[in-house]
Amino acid sequence: MGILARFLSTALLGGASGAAGFAFWTRNSKFAHVSSSDPLFSSPAYLKNNPNKNPATHDICVRRVPLSDIKPQLLEKESEGKLVEAFCAGVWGGLGYAYQRRYLANKYQNTTTTAYQLWTRPELQSSTYAVGTQITDHFEVVSKTPSSIVVRCGDSPLKTEIRDSDGLFEMGVELKKDEGVAEFRLKSLLYKGLGKSDSKPMPEHIDFLHRLYAKLWMETAIGNVTR
């Protein structure tokens, strides 16, 4: 989270006007409660990689968009699953991830161990994010349905064992046709995998920055699914 803290502190919150502008721009992205019965808590990836059931930091950022604003080709019956793919592509290939992507590329991209991973904006924007897809040596798709894509995060996907820092991040969408909206969701479940811990993995100020970053990702990703 160190690079994210520096980025958000300087680029987004570099003064009262910057903070106010960011708050207005992200005003439609809201945080909701994550139930203890949420499927992520019973997913194979979570149960396997958090064997000691350590406390987790969890949140969900929700953004509702009128169906009339969504690109029509993403709502066609024969395009099932394309909307969540486009949303996911907007997260990783959008401007919200550009700073972190460049940082990780400078540090970890190479022609041997990470050559097959997604690194460039064209790759990230065109991928279908099948299970096993690895993103900038920091994320790996572990689950995919027509309405949800879940990635494991916290460390390099080359480290398949239990990690000190670990987590799951879900990009989801639900069409609520009776309300005339598509509901987009960014859900995080972060925890310490190694050893036994009685506390959550992030202090309050880092948790706060994490939520700002989720809002940034949400707003830049929405641009990839709207007209």
Describe this structure in words.
This protein has 227 residues and is α+β, with helices and mostly antiparallel strands. The protein has one domain: Alpha-D-Glucose-1,6-Bisphosphate, Chain A, domain 4 (2-Layer Sandwich). It contains 7 helices and 7 strands; from the N terminus they run H-H-E-H-E-H-H-H-E-E-E-E-E-H. A 7-stranded antiparallel sheet has the order 1-2-7-6-5-4-3. The longest helix has 19 residues. It is globular and about 50 Å long. The relative contact order is 0.22. The mean pLDDT is 92.
Under CATH at level 1, the class stands as Alpha Beta
Structural class: alpha+beta
Helix percent reads 25-40%
Uncertain residue segments: none
By CATH, the architecture is named 2-Layer Sandwich
How many discrete domains? 1
Span of the ends, CA to CA: 33 Å
Overall shape: it is: globular
Order of helices and strands: HHEHEHHHEEEEEH
Strand order of the largest sheet: 1-2-7-6-5-4-3
* Gyration radius over CA: 17 Å
Protein name: Coenzyme Q-binding protein COQ10 START domain-containing protein
Signal peptide: 1-18
Keywords: Signal
